[in-house]
Write a structure and sequence with these properties.
The complex is a heterodimer. By secondary structure, chain A is α/β, with parallel strands linked by helices. Chain A contains twelve helices and eleven strands. Chain A has helices at residues 5-19, 36-40, 52-64, 75-81, 83-92, 120-125, 137-151, 189-202, 216-229, 245-252, 274-280, 285-293; strands spanning 23-27, 45-47, 68-72, 98-101, 131-133, 155-158, 175-178, 183-188, 207-211, 232-236, 257-261. The longest helix of chain A is centred in the N-terminal third of the chain and has 15 residues, at 5-19. By secondary structure, chain B is α/β, with parallel strands linked by helices. Helices cover 40% and strands 13% of the residues of chain B. Chain B has helices at 2-21, 29-46, 62-71, 110-124, 143-154, 175-178, 184-191, 203-210, 249-258, and strands at 53-56, 131-136, 160-166, 169-170, 173-174, 194-199, 221-226. In chain B, 55% of the residues are buried. Classes of the chains: A alpha/beta, B alpha/beta.
Chain lengths: 294, 260
């Protein structure tokens, strides 16, 4: 059975911690019962309670003493409530701390506005040196977590909630599903990639490049590859237009035509399932195809 | 002997703080002077080499920290002549480019959590050493301080020590008038802390409260240190207006002669 992104994170970290005694798993009361890390390594699992900023700051202290803290809480509480702590810990200190943020975008669906986060990439991309990943599917999430453990660099990893996807073959900075032609779909994150795969089903000839990492360093490298093969791009991401990946790629590829399909400027304030809340923001297959045809 | 050593270090550090107030930048003078004896004692405690880390969470007292680090031998160069100057790390709020400083502080509350994280790391490694945070009393208005106290108590971090420089002042006036802190000791106790109230200008009392290794302790320690803003420099002692001061060289020379 394929695991969701957040479950893949928990499982992979639990597995990696068997060989690496410096890995710690910190939660702010949203890790759920029967967290696999807690079951397997209870002495290195800490539910610090509902205290996101303190959790990130304490992770800085732990990293300073040589530990590898992985902290996790929902994206709005990590990227927005604890934003200053991320600035100092991940940005300025460049501490070897990884923040894993499920519930990114509107994956909380009917949970309401407070539990959505369409701004995290804009916030995190503003902190130089932070590795930002938006993996799609179980295998890619596992690869991102393993790379974070190995690198010692500060990471922010956004995942969705419970959606489980098969990853595309790994590629860094670009995972190419298909190339060729003037236009290329560029997918970011779980739902952006799902929509691009659905669009390719409708338009089988389309090129599709998936980006597992979306920090400036990785996007600059990806832009070189993208520009070499294509001149027009439709970037699909579950994020606002402002501060998103399409905006960044447009700056990195000034001679290319870059269009974005994203969550726009609206506030997700009604119920529905994940896809329905996305569609209410204008982020659905129809929008992707319209951008392709435009 | 220790008391004499710490007294002399604090006297020397006060001179340096006055020098920094006489720099083109000026400095947070009152709070730097109120916290000096605490910092000197805490740095002396850390110099035992058991892994104790001192974090000045009230980072606006950076001048006091730099002076204490120099007087304690952690910083070799005299920071006063280059305080706030281009090409030197002695900024108005401290960061890890300064020798002896691990964490950036000044945005209030964060240093408390950094020190708690350090204490947690020492415990996880089965090693001695305290995580000592030095906070201001005005700083206690920040939610992050209490968020961290909640976590530290819940995690049983008996090697976490939060020293409150209770000088009664804050940027725009007096703590008691802006957002008072009644029953402060009881507040910490209710969070599960041990509480000790000391004279924050008594090196013997400060050394005594900071010296235990607290091995095996499960309750964090709050030290409420009664201090005086501007302490040791009579023209500004006890004056709220001493919060941020810029003076000229002549006045600095006069004030240094008055240090007690």
């Amino acid at each position: 059975m394929t695991l969701s992104g957040r479950d893949a994170y928990r499982d992979e970290l639990t597995r990696l911690a068997e060989a690496d005694r410096r890995i710690l798993c910190l939660e702010a009361d949203l890790g759920g019962k029967n967290h696999p890390f807690q079951l397997k390594h209870p002495e290195r699992f800490f539910n610090l309670g509902i205290a996101e900023a303190a959790m990130v700051d304490m992770a800085a202290g732990l990293a300073s003493a040589g530990f590898k803290p992985f902290v996790s809480t929902f994206a709005p509480f990590a990227a927005l409530r604890a934003a200053e702590s991320l600035k100092l810990t991940l940005g300025y200190l460049a501490a070897g701390v990884t923040v894993v943020a499920p519930y990114s975008g509107v994956s909380g669906a009917w949970f309401g506005t407070t539990h959505h986060c369409l701004e995290d990439l804009a916030v995190l991309r503003a902190f130089p040196g932070v590795v930002i990943a938006a993996p799609h599917g179980e295998a890619e999430t596992r690869a991102v977590i393993a790379a974070a453990v190995a690198s010692g660099r500060p990471h922010y990893v956004r995942t969705g909630r419970n959606a489980a996807y098969e990853s595309l073959p790994w590629g860094d900075p670009v995972a190419w599903e298909a190339a060729g032609g003037e236009l290329c779909l560029v997918s970011v994150g779980e739902e952006g990639t799902r929509l691009c795969l659905e669009a390719r089903h409708r338009r089988p000839g389309l090129a599709h490049a998936h980006l597992p990492y979306v920090d400036h360093e990785h996007l600059a490298a990806a832009a070189v590859e993208l520009e070499r093969l294509h001149a027009r791009f439709v970037v699909v991401e579950e994020h606002r237009a402002q501060g998103g990946v399409a905006e960044a790629l447009a700056l990195l590829m000034p001679t290319a035509r870059v269009a974005g399909v994203n969550a726009g400027t609206g506030w997700p304030s009604e119920g529905g399932d994940h896809a329905e809340v996305m569609a209410a923001l204008g982020l659905d297959l129809r929008a992707v195809l319209a951008a392709v045809d435009g | 002997m220790t008391v004499e050593l710490l007294t002399e270090r604090a006297r020397r550090a006060r001179e340096l703080v006055v020098d920094m107030a006489a720099s083109p930048r000026g400095c947070h003078l009152g709070g730097s002077l109120s916290v000096l004896d605490i910092l000197v004692a805490a740095l002396h405690r850390a110099s035992t080499g058991d892994g104790t880390e001192v974090v000045l969470s009230k980072g606006h007292a950076a001048a006091g920290l730099y002076a204490a680090l120099h007087a304690s031998g952690v910083i070799e160069e005299n920071p006063a002549p280059v305080y706030g100057q281009k090409g030197h790390p002695y900024t108005g709020h401290p960061g890890p480019k300064v020798p002896g400083v691990r964490f950036p502080t000044g945005s209030l509350g964060h240093g408390v959590a950094y020190a708690a994280g350090w204490a947690m790391a020492r415990r996880l490694d089965g090693l001695p050493g305290l995580g000592i945070a030095v906070a201001g009393d005005g700083e206690l208005q920040e939610g992050l301080v209490w968020e961290t106290c909640q976590v530290a108590a819940a995690q049983g971090l008996g090697n976490f020590v939060l020293v409150v420089d209770r000088n009664g002042g804050q940027n725009d006036g007096m703590v008691a008038e802006i957002s008072p802190l009644p029953d402060l000791g009881a507040r910490f106790a209710s969070f599960g802390f041990e509480v000790s109230e000391v004279d924050g200008h008594d090196p013997a009392a400060l050394s005594a409260v900071l010296s235990p290794d607290r091995a095996g302790e499960r309750r964090p320690l709050a030290v409420i240190a009664a201090t005086v803003k501007g302490k040791g420099v009579p023209p500004v002692e006890g004056k709220a207006a001493s919060h941020y001061v810029t003076i000229d060289a002549a006045r600095a020379a006069k004030w240094k002669r008055l240090i007690r």
